[in-house]
## 1
Amino acid sequence: MSVARIALRVHGRLSLESVVVAANRRFARGGWIRSRTPRALMTDSFFPPEANVPGLLPDVDRDGLLEYSVVYTDRSINHMSQRFQHVMRDISDLLKKVYHAKSVAIVPGSGTFGMEAVARQFATNRKCLVIRNGWFSYRWSQIFEMGSIPSESIVLKARPVESGRQAAYAPAPIDEVVAAIREHKPDLVFAPHVETASGMLLPDAYLRAVADAVHEVGGMFVLDCIASGTIWVDMEASGVDVLVSAPQKGWSASPGCALVMLSPLARERIDGTTSTSFACDLRKWLQIMEAYEGGGFAYHATMPTDSLATLRDVIKETDAYGFDKVRDEQLELGTRIRALLAEKGFRSVAAEGFQAPGVVVCYTDDDDIRSGKKFADVGVQIAAGVPLQCDEPADFKTFRIGLFGLDKLHDVDGAVARFADALERVL
């Protein structure tokens, strides 16, 4: 007989919540009702000790407590729960593993929230240098200007490597960057690992040279890896001090936060800084993570707990599959899609040697390709072209292809075939 029927038979009537709680206890625990008498229903034979009470909805937090906090409902994971504490520790451990980071902070919101959190924590009244390779590294300048953050900002822009229309672009030459760092002695250098507006990637040697130069003058290197896909950056090998990522591209998870990794130097220096934001207080979010790492929990503002649980699961899935394997798959997929587009006559915005495998940006003269309409008409969502903010000509017109996600990476042949079929119909 079901628990609901037992309860109704004994009491005649019960609230729906009581029946659901009873049913959840029965099925989540595999059965521990030892009596069907009214007295048994009022004892620990039916209601186990408080520490063992399961959540109301077992698909949310099977082993959690009944939700009567002021923060969440029964349909969300509570930030104080044992389950979420494990989620946070797992995320921290795995991100430290893949990026070779000293510390990890999670900032609710999106990748841009992480960028602003870093700027407001470290760059206030400091001299900053930005390597701008497109619209999304122009974002550093937008953040600086909106918050009146740095004392000075120097920008080194990408530039064409050839003359004529639809010229390929490359980042500022590394010798020029190193010379500028030595001349201006910035406190921080900001750069995009992969620039989403141009499909441009900074190679490992470029990163190392920037890091060495800024460390020589006592500064730190901040790298935006939000669009890196599964081209992981080793912070120890590259010399990066602050790395910003997010769940929705390289991690195949739902957006909802920024992931900020710190080197030992950045972890040391953050204690001497004060953020100019409450919600984006990076030091506070670092303290929150460190509370979880220490076996407890803490609260600053409400976290996207369910999204973070999903992120943890996907990071673990990727770890089990192999971080190196998904990196190789990303490289293969990007190489093949770029070759396909070149074969059809589309010119890459990113020059040879700087072409990202996860973001492909090509020129077009067709407004319906630029906007993505022609792709949408055949069932494919791409991204419209955006400006570079790198002194490009007025007729600069592009479209953008994203090659993110484990489902593409684990089936490179299929991903290429599906895109090739769509491209044929677009043309």
## 2
Amino acid sequence: MLFLGFAYSICLLTTPAEIEEQVTALSYGHKGEFDYLAYLHASYLFDDIPLETNLETNESPVSPPSTPKYPSEIINAFDMTFTYRFVPDKPVTKISEQVEVKAVLDKPEVGPEEVILVPTTDLTGDFTVSFFMNASDLASSPTTTIKANVYTTVETDTGPVFESFTQSLAIQSKGPLLEVSRDLTNTQRASFG
């Protein structure tokens, strides 16, 4: 018994202590941006004129100071884009994405109606997809939520990383006005490993 106790204490003294350290293999960010132009109905005064900011500047869309409101009677359509960037903290082997953009129109009399604006599409790297919404469709729904769903696969030295990112944009019909949410950009940080 004494011999077993002595042998056990020798094992404890000679066994190296294990130190466990968490190492992050990859830190990254998802960045999504909606942007849009509101087009007026063609008229003898204005023809077909988009309501837009200065095209000379090549800047990212900036959230306006208040919720933009557009009279639904004179707006024909919204020409919209969604831009996505995957921003890793170190180089990666390959980035591929799948994106789908859909609108959910809240129809109180029949329930929500889902409309596919951009069908599931395979892309690589940073991308921009374009889509279109009729103002009359938006005016017929108290709330329309546009959702961009991105599924990203990143190949790294330590293996693949599978990520998802969703960004939403709400458009509300309030009487004769269409109100577009100010939240045009979304950034989400994450890490792997």
## 3
Amino acid sequence: MTVFVGNGTDATLENLLVALGHILLAVPASAASNAVAALSEAGFGNIRPVADVRPRIIVDTGELDLSVEHPRLVADGRDWLAEIAVLVLEFNIGPIGRSTPKSRQTLYEDFRQLRVVHSRNVQVEIDGLAGALPAMLDGVLPVPDGDRPTVVVQSSDDDLDWSTLARIARAISLALGRGWLLTDFKMVFATLAHSQAPLGGPLERPDDEALARAFSQPLERIREILRSLSASNRRILEWLVPVVAVRFGHDAAIHLLDREYVLVEDEEIVTTLVAICINADAIRSLIGACHAAQGLDELRRDLGFSLSVFNAATEALGPPFPQLRFEGQLRRSFSDRLDELRPELRERVRNAFAGETRDALMLAKYRDAAALGWATFDEAWISTHDELDDKIIDERIENLATIALPAVSEAPEVPLDVARQANRIVIMENAGDIQRVVAAWTAKAPGRAAHTSWVGKPELLAREALASGIFDFGTVSLGDLPQALELAGLWPAGMPTSLDLNDLGLVANDLDQQAKAEQKRKDEQDRQTKTVRFGSTDIVGGTSESLQAVVRALSEGLESKAFQKRSGPATLNPFPEGDDKGRKRRKRGTSDKDPIYLTDQQRSLIGFAGEYAAYIHLRRTVRNFADEHWISSLGRNFLCLPARQDEEGYDFHVPRWRGGLYFEVKAHTGDPGYLDLERSQVAAAVQFADERQGIWKVLYVANVLDPSLVAVHELANPFTEGNINLYRPSSRQGVRLLIDRK
């Protein structure tokens, strides 16, 4: 057994130990070493100070190796982030770490060394126990290191936007060994994230006015600090050395670099370079440009250096002089332009294959080319370009198209989209009849089978047919459909490519039988789309008896003591302060299946079940509750009461002379841990947030389809000041608030 002794100086590591199941003994900092010695002498097993622990961090590529050159946070022209870090130090509200010119310069240089590692999965192993990051770290792990401080971010992509920056602010301060700035980093980056891009967006430098607002400082004070930072000799040399290498040669830069630690004033730099026969005015001009520039890339642009020439110079100099790279921006530009050209390129691919012999191999090649996989990004651009215009991208695509596509011998007269739409109409207008013929033919003899698209909706058959590519080369008549569908790989094997009943060995009665079977299937499908199962009872919505049937199905469960015990005010766990990961827009995955949505009848049944469970709960728990307090349209209809407007923002209203009680019901078939609020409900919640006019609550009904599990949980108003940290915004569809119920 290993006991770890911590003194609170590394809260992140101590939280990891506890989360992994290790035993942690917390002692005052002054007593840590004595505690370790005393416990070891007393024979309490293996005693280790937390300060000696070095966790193994497992990311997607394997164990995290800090010796590998991971991307820097200030890459892609983000040097200004280091300037913001210096402002954080200058205006920090803590009692530690007074800002001095030396401390500002040191933080600036340390921040520029900060690495960021993105990984879909992050695991940590300490002393044989491994596990995921604890929830309180929000998927972000600081890795302090003297030479290569790193922040590991658990995310599905490597995009760095304002939302992500605010999320990792805490870890930045810890990775840099400046924990006393933790609160300041969090506050400033969260403020800037909200003001620059509230819903996420590209990471661009805020103007000086935005920085002044974020730090609550006068504009001139902000500019004064930034000027002093840009004027520092160390910063000037960091930019001047590669500039000298480009303008005057590699040897001149090395000459300057060899003397960097004895150069204090600008004129000393001038004297050093004049000694090797470089014009003094030219040197002063370069130094002035370094002072004036806001970033290294801006300096390069101001001096007219191409990216390839500048990067060649910094590569020859080696670390710590960085390569300027804009890979993310370049790839986005290429992808956006490719998407813009996609219809035109698809047309070009179609025309290139129009003269080819139609067979399965040709269609496979055509589909592959139409996917535009041949239109690839030029990796060489990363080291030679800082931006891409349409001309550069178009030339690249043109060259690739010439190589990848056959020469056009004959272009179809009909445009691609026109051909596809015309053929879609032909397929859709005749799909039902053809499906009936195919079903009759396959049923006529054992061993016959058809593609699954023949037994589904006509839209699915049309989709499969159009995706094959055979319908892109011209319009197809009804008589040509069987041959085209055979080339598409959809026509049943062994079935003659004809719709003539005699050719198929069928008679009219065969089709009549299929029509009856088809109508029976449609009726059953229609019934299923209106049906909801409550417990073991299937209830069809939209009928006069459906609401009463729901009551009968739930009555035993709602009358039980177990339901009463499960229901009541819910205790919610607060989300960590500043936790905004739910706000970030995430990329959605793709699926080859159509989404399945509830019908109006199914939604009404589930909604009524939730409201009825809430009705039973309120009758038992709210003093003087009456039927007339159920004001929603579903409730008024069920109780045969006069109709009312259904847009008040609540389903129940219990009047009180000091302010009424208002309840909005949210019914769920499971227990998903969120609730969606519509506009009227948000308005009502905000109206009653101060609870002076009344109290607004959510009745979160979980497991509404299962009478043995259904429960009504009372949730406090999410817009009341004391409840805000109990909810977290999520999604961009209306308002979704995540909850974590105990």
## 4
Amino acid sequence: MLYLVGLGLADETDITVKGLEIVKKAERVYLEAYTSILLVDTTKLETFYGRPIIVADREMVESDSDAILHEAHVKDIAFLVVGDPFGATTHTDLILRARELSIPVETVPNASILSAIGTTGLQLYNFGQTVSMVFFLDNWKPSSFYDRIKENASIGLHTLVLLDIKVKEQSLENMARGRKIYEPPRYMTVAQCAAQMLETEETRQEGVYHEDSLAVGVARVGARDQRIVVGTLKELTEVDVGKPLHSLVLLGRRTHDLERDYIRVFAVDEKTFDQSYEKYYGKTY
């Protein structure tokens, strides 16, 4: 049996009771370590679970999945995923491969950023499509996220923006030369995301959002030291909410008064918050 076990968002104690029981009895335990990260290192997981863990990087999961699935017909294999097992399409691919090999699969859900973002006080049913923000390069600045935000904005919905992480990634030069040399880990910040959003608006100039549009920046959601900060996009380009992981929510115009009251306490500047809110939000049309 292949078990995909969600770990939650923060530390080793976020695993469910069912998930922990599976991990303890599994023949092998893998940790998917590139679509997201926990806020503690692998040794803490091993100590808490009482099991050795094999770290599965992108290359193993996407190119050598059969190694993970080896003997899963007759033995229990646990594949641990930060957040919820279905938070990334990669994990769907692994399940499809298991099905091709007639390997039974069971999933154990857990909290993901898609649900835990409710800690901001924004109502989950007021969210539209989730988008991803990648690190811009000098010659590559994709703006597909902008089109999805435009669609959400057209019906007044919030947009959750998931920020890029680079873990065990190779440079283009090293990939071209076939060298197994990896770049240091990089994690996009709220400030970088806000700056790239404004850069894209400056380029596209479709008025989807503005410098004084309101957004919520979050860091380390679910951890004891989680941070929430609210401000205009311009203000958020200058905030520092500390260690990863970060996410950002761009407010939709249909923001409810209860949502406003909840997030106002996190405002960088209550005066600018009130001005922007009066200008753009609380609208039902």
